[in-house]
Design a protein that fits this description.
585 residues; alpha/beta; Rossmann fold; 2 domains; 6-stranded mixed beta sheet; 4-stranded antiparallel beta sheet
Length: 585
């Protein structure tokens, strides 16, 4: 929970991708994740130190090869002192051995640093996903519906990854910034004049590149918006492709997706082009600065050739670090809008958070008398969906709610599950207010057979275990038998391990419905809710399902919602739901 709280607080940036926003993000990062910041940036600094030591070994190598030990620089005298301190002869052979070991160690350390940053991205992504999932769990159902599953999917799948990469880049920038100063210090030991001149030129280049950085941030915001639209459209296209293709209108949906894709590709090209332009300008500027420094050192300052070679080697490592820093900043500015997306998603989910009383410890172990809605009123948007509804569902009886679509039948089921919280009225279980009980415990006593059966792309057994984690094979076969679903499962060579395919498409409509009922019965519920259990079935399948429900009504408290009168014939109680009102039939 603490990690989720930290993730929630760190995404509270304005998301505009300005330099000020990045600075504040750096401060938040160090504040909320000091250990990760130290480990990530520390690995980069340690790597840079050993790279610096390895490059510095060039100076004695060139000096020894050149046969000159006069006018040793500060850096060269330090290296000679190091060999004296470890009681090793200062010779070409020993210097080359040291350089080889340093090079091998740097390669290993670079791989370890890459692993550390990959781990940081994974850990932050995990926390951002947990933050969104927690917000979904605590939000009112209406907030989740308003947000939309596609938007939530994009936030979990894409924006969480981008935001994690931004934080990883922040840590990398801290480390690279310290490493940059170390390299500048080493360059200054060789020639502070050349280093100062190069630093002034680099600062001037970055100042003139500021407008391009702002442009990159703006492009990143457009890409984030377009990317969400594309994913939403693709998911909607795939889910409705059969219907679109059957009516020969799939081309219209394809054209819309193509237009979004073209827009996305154009922005992506721009996103790649601007950093490339910035990199080219920086590289050309640094090259000119390095060449100018070499000319100044050799012509104006009379520096030894070995020191010029060393400075050139240091500049050769300093330049890529500056380019990596620039690329990291560009990538952060491009992905920074992900913070706005995540923060906006969480804020909207929490803005209308469920107001049920603080967690209750009282549990419900049985329904002896029944469940009742008493004077319940509920408004969704501008529409009064339930208007002073009072209805009782007696224990171990079948109560059928009839009525037209949109009349409020499914909303009553949502109230019974606690997904909808009435503005007025009470939901009573054996006369006790549902608000006095643990909502989690109540939901664990409920089983629902939805109008649209949702199955995971897995086996029957795996789908069952999602809803009843402790169930064994005997429990599963018993539930299948109650739902009259054993025949077709036993006929399959794999039995309970039979694969269902996408949304159970390997089964017929009647088989999916009976399997959905079996999955519900596996929970041994106190309250069984059926939402349009026969709406998509043929007459024969409908009759079989009706017979199954007739057997169940003496064992469970069953509430069935339907607009077809077939279930009314076997119902113990029948009510008509229309325009938010309930009347006995």
């Amino acid at each position: 929970m603490e990690k989720v709280d930290k993730a929630s607080r760190i995404i509270e940036r304005d998301g505009k991708g300005t330099m000020f926003s990045l600075l504040m993000l750096f401060l938040d990062l160090v504040k909320f994740y000091p250990l990760r910041s130290i480990v990530g940036s520390g690995a980069t600094v340690i790597l840079s130190i050993f790279e610096l030591i390895g490059i510095s070994a060039l100076l004695p190598i060139v000096t020894i090869l050149n046969g000159s030990n006069d006018n040793q620089s500060v850096l060269q005298r330090f290296i000679v002192s190091f060999f004296d301190a470890i009681s090793v002869t200062y010779s070409l052979q020993n210097v080359l051995i040291l350089a080889m070991f340093l090079g091998a160690f740097v390669v290993i350390l670079r791989g370890f640093t890459t692993f550390i940053y990959a781990s940081l991205v994974a850990s932050w992504r995990k926390e951002f996903v947990a933050m969104i999932v927690d917000a979904i769990r605590d939000a009112r159902w209406s907030s989740i519906e308003d947000e939309g599953r596609h938007s939530l999917f994009s936030a979990i799948q894409t924006e969480a990854t981008f935001a994690a990469q931004v934080l990883s880049n922040c840590v990398s920038l801290i480390g690279n910034g310290i490493a940059f100063l170390l390299f500048c210090g080493a360059c200054a030991l060789v020639s502070w004049e050349a280093t100062f001149a190069l630093g002034i030129g680099g600062a001037a280049i970055l100042f003139f590149l500021t407008p391009l950085f702002r442009k990159i941030s703006k492009i990143g915001q457009g890409i984030a918006t377009t990317n969400r639209k594309i994913k939403q459209s693709i998911l909607e296209f795939l889910s409705s492709h059969k219907m679109l293709r059957s009516m020969n209108v799939s081309e219209m949906a394809e054209d819309y997706i193509n237009r979004l894709t073209v827009n996305y590709c154009q922005r992506t090209v721009q996103q790649a082009a601007y950093p490339m332009l910035i990199s080219s300008i920086v590289e050309i500027g640094l090259l000119a600065g390095v060449l100018f420094s070499i000319w100044m050192m050799s012509s104006k300052m009379g520096q030894p050739v070995e020191e010029i070679i060393l400075l050139l080697a240091l500049f050769s490592r300093l330049t890529p670090r500056l380019l990596v820093t620039q690329q990291s900043v560009s990538l952060m500015l491009s992905n920074f809008p992900s913070f706005s997306v995540l923060a906006g998603t969480v804020k909207r989910l929490k803005s209308n958070i469920k107001t049920r009383a603080e967690a209750k410890s009282a549990n419900i172990s049985e329904i002896a008398d029944g469940v009742e809605l008493r004077h319940v009123c509920l408004t969704l948007g501008q529409k009064r969906v339930l208007d002073n509804v009072s209805v009782k569902f007696p224990a171990r009886q079948l109560t059928v709610l009839l009525g037209p679509s949109g009349g409020g039948k499914s909303t009553i089921l949502d109230c019974l599950t606690g997904l909808r919280i009435p503005e007025q009225g009470q939901i009573l279980v054996d006369g006790g207010d549902l608000n006095a009980f643990s909502i989690e415990n109540w939901r664990s006593q409920i089983a629902i057979v939805p109008q649209e059966q949702h199955f995971f792309r897995s086996s029957i057994r795996s789908n069952f275990l999602i809803y009843a984690a402790t169930a064994n094979d005997d429990d599963m076969w018993s539930a299948l038998e109650e739902a009259d679903a054993t025949d077709f499962v036993k006929r399959h060579p794999s039995g309970l391990d039979a694969e269902l395919g996408d949304e159970g498409l390997n089964l017929s409509g009647g088989q999916r419905q009976r399997l959905s009922i079996a999955r519900a019965l596996l929970r041994k519920p106190l309250l069984l809710l059926l939402d349009e259990p026969t709406s998509a079935l043929d007459a024969e399948s409908e009759e079989k399902i009706r017979d199954t429900i007739c057997k169940l009504k003496t064992k469970y408290t069953v509430v069935a919602v339907t607009h077809r009168p077939a279930l009314a014939d076997i119902a113990d109680n029948t009510f008509l739901v229309d325009s938010g009102k309930v009347t006995s039939k």
